[in-house]
Amino acid sequence: MDTLSDMNRGPNTALVVLSFLQADCRSSEYREELLSLGQIINNKSCIQSFDDGGFETDGHLPSKVSLSDIHPSVELLGLRNPVEAEAIQEIAGELRHIGDLLEHNVVARATQNLSRNILDSSPEHWKNHLTREVERVMREGVGLEHLPQERVIMALTLTLVKRVCEQTPSLLRILFNTTIQYIMALRAR
Fold first, then answer.
1. For this UniProt entry, which segments traverse the membrane (predicted)?
2. Fewer CB near the last or first residue (10 Å), C or N of the chain?
């Protein structure tokens, strides 16, 4: 799994997103929401039917994955293929690094805009708000033109989602699903 486009196959997208969101969890309420989401994924009951082609619509994951197994410095022990587990951690780590660089430049304002927009609308519009905010930030420039833009967009997206969920943990599950749909739509472009 060398590219982000490889990440978009099967449940890997959800695992990378979950790994990204889990890192450096500061709030106990946010941590509880992440654990709950991980348990739901573990029970194979929350993967909704995505018509985007990347997820199996029956919610089947190839193996049991526990949120407690998803840490930046620990392999995803629940995956059968250790190379794939390591690749998921590596991608999430690279995206977190880019997200850290973005944080200094633009994330605070973009998080505030996204949070305000999603709180003022219904969940079916959240993907549009996320798309518009990521595109606005990318148009204005983030100062990371030396990095692959696909990764910058992905890191920006996940960083914004994480910051909104840290502020309002109750949005995690719906925003997680919205993020997966958004990533799948990016892949389709």
1. none
2. C
